[in-house]
Structure of Fructose-1,6-bisphosphate aldolase, class II:
Amino acid sequence: MALVSAAEMLTKAREGKYAVGAFNTNNLEWTKAILKGAQESNAPVMIQTSMGAAKYMGGYQMCVHMVEDLIESMNITVPVALHLDHGEYEDALKCIEIGYTSVMYDGSHHPFEKNIEEAKDVVAKAHAKGVSVECEVGSIGGEEDGIIGSGELADPAECKAMSDTGIDFLAAGIGNIHGSYPENWTGLSFETLAEIAAVTDGKPLVLHGGSGIPVEQVQKAISLGVSKINVNTECQEVFAAATRKYIEEGKDLEGKGFDPRKLLAPGTEAVVELVKQRIEWFGSKGKA
Ligand code: 13P
């Protein structure tokens, strides 16, 4: 199946009160693991690259080819969108041109007027090519790829203005942060989420920083309009833990255990399992 835009899968998720998992890929193993997890769960899925991860993998065009070719060689039949995560304006336009089927233009660090103006421009160019668009209001806290946000609760009036630009789905800060949550984290603000949902006309909402949020909070957020949940750190953690175990057990020293195809297999399988578990949490299992 060819890559699809995320607009339809997220509209269906919003109506059906479940969320689509958006998993960040970092390399070939990750990409295969996300596709395998989604296929075994019969779930729609979004594979996303940060700007930094795409650069690491050899550039945006390489990512398009990798995901498209794996979909074919792995006989993937569930809907898959390839999405740019936290893109600058120029990067969003480049991805629209070369085959990403969904982009996030993140202008949340700009003055609000500029964020809105550039969002409108990205929407026009993306929609002309059938590409879906996510934008952000109120920065998401934590650190990701060197971009540090202080974390805040988005202003519902700004969310409405951003939603009205014609974007397909909206990321808004509701107390969520990227990376691990600190011990003194006070949890998601469901009050803010409900206020945002009330003024954005049923638009799918996006929960960034999906790693480490208790399942009850995740599911409550879904019931209030969250339809896309981003997960990155937890995949990295389970991959690292499984790889560490393999090496600490000396398996890399047995026979040809040092072959990267063997060395990276436990970590890859751990990502598959996490993807499948999160898909269950999000309620998108069987929704392909
Ligand atoms: P985590 O790394 O906290 O899972 O967040 C991922 C994310 O929101 C990507 O945009």
Observations:
- The pocket of 1,3-dihydroxyacetonephosphate is lined by residues 24, 85-86, 178-179, 208-211, 230-234 (CB under 6 Å).
